[in-house]
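Reviewers of the previous submission asked for a worked example of the structure-prediction workflow described in the proposal, so we include one complete record here. The input consisted solely of the amino acid sequence. No template or homolog information was supplied to the procedure at any stage.
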Amino acid sequence: MESKGSWTVADAVDYNGLPADKSKTGGWITAALILGIEVVERLSTMGIAVNLVTYLMDTMHLSSSSSANIVTDFMGTSFLLCLLGGFLADSFLGRFKTIAIFSTIQALGTGALAVATKLPELRPPTCHHGEACTPATAFQMTFLYIALYLIALGTGGLKSSISGFGSDQFDDKDPKEKAQMAYFFNRFFFIISVGTLMAVTVLVYIQDEVGRSWAYGICTVSMGIAIAVFLFGTKSYRYKKSQGSPVVQIFQIIAASIRKRKTELPQSIVYLYEDTPEGLRIEHTDQFRMLDKAAVVTEGDLEQTLDGIAIPNPWKLSSVTRVEEVKMMVRLLPIWATTIIFWTTYAQMITFSVEQASTMRRNVGNFQIPAGSLTVFFVAAILITLAFYDRVIMPFWKKWKGKPGFSSLQKIAIGLVLSTAGMAAAAIVEQERLSVAKTSTQKTLPISVFLLVPQFFLVGAGEAFIYTGQLDFFITQSPKGMKTMSTGLFLTTLSLGFFVSSFLVSIVKKVTATSVSEGWLADNINHGRLDLFYWLLVILSGINFVVYVICALWFKPTKGKDSEEKENGKSFSVEDC
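From that input alone, the workflow returned the following structure tokens.
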């Protein structure tokens, strides 16, 4: 007869705080209840982002560059706030409360956006082609910003906890449940793709042909239903206790090493403090030796408890393993920095590329494709690339090299190359579009929008490689206790990529504008040189790739228990997120 412990999950509790009973909590059904919120989050965020630039230009009467910057700042903030959501979930709220609170905030944001796009008082008067248009007032833009950044706040909180709370519903020490977890996360990625596809097709079509307020109202109602479904499973979920934020550990070690900056390091590492159990220790490394000073025992580092036991003050003394965990995070930073530029090129796919599409012939028979829906080729490229990699490249690579596929660093390199090629294709097409614009007086230029497909496809294929490569790298090369933080670090590359795009647009517009010309990024892209901006991104991406290769060659993974498991065949899976 099985022991009672085999029917409970060691590191999880139920709604009442008791050990989680496997027969009554967790599993595939409860995990599925979480997916609805992720679908609606993708539907709302991507549906807004890919078509927002046309609303800002055509309805709010803002310039091309200002519209692009508003979109990239919105997306950048959404990803940056993942760090806040992760910190709150790890330190205070737990994942369940974080999801419930931030999904409600996002619903409030989409509701406010529906109101902003419905009421005439919240947008400037309509103007027609050739007329002087009145831009939106400060009050109208303020209301729009409040709606957008409520959505960004909600998105940030959700992204940091959804996948983790899903993995909490499975016991990774139970072979059967571990297999179910892998199945769940395969479906999780598929669900994200379905949400994105619905956003760039159905939702964008409703925005353009029925009304934006209807589209955003649908998002609000959908999120309300998803929250209700999520809360329905409250008593069936498994909950894991918060272990505190790793950010505190990092600050503790930095503080201790600065405090002991004048202390000499011992000649042998055996004199450094270590209290981690033997099987969980991380091998000492010689890099970043300044941090090793946090493990040097000095007077006052140990404090007496009421029982007379001496314990270290974590702000003054840390173990070698805790120091090495921080070193592991520091080693990730060069790779982290050299992947930011990819997301800067990605930002062009939902800003200037959509603007390009809005000026081109988009008819298929009597049906006109919404400009924002061109990103469907971007999503299709991701799905096709992933399927091709799984079905063709991985079997071939395993047969030829004896490995299950490309390494995470190789995937990132491929993604960077493809995105650079995508920007080069975008520049060439833009040169052709501008040559047509010079000889045409029509609002819709006599040039097919399908010329934009290569740039969407190349950058989309690049994302398939770089996203999975980054996620794999940041999870597998980070300490076990800092995996949530490392996922947040990965997401900040997306955030900073969007912010770098906004910065570049502002700088290029300022530097290239003259008294007789609006420069490369004119208010009307037919009067600018967007192609030169794209070529600038090609050059920056090329330089960045060289730096990335140097950083990838420099990077050496830390040896320890986790590393040994990976070398012995333990593969990365999304449940580690």
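The chain has 16 helices and eight strands. We consider this example representative of the routine output the project will generate in years two and three.
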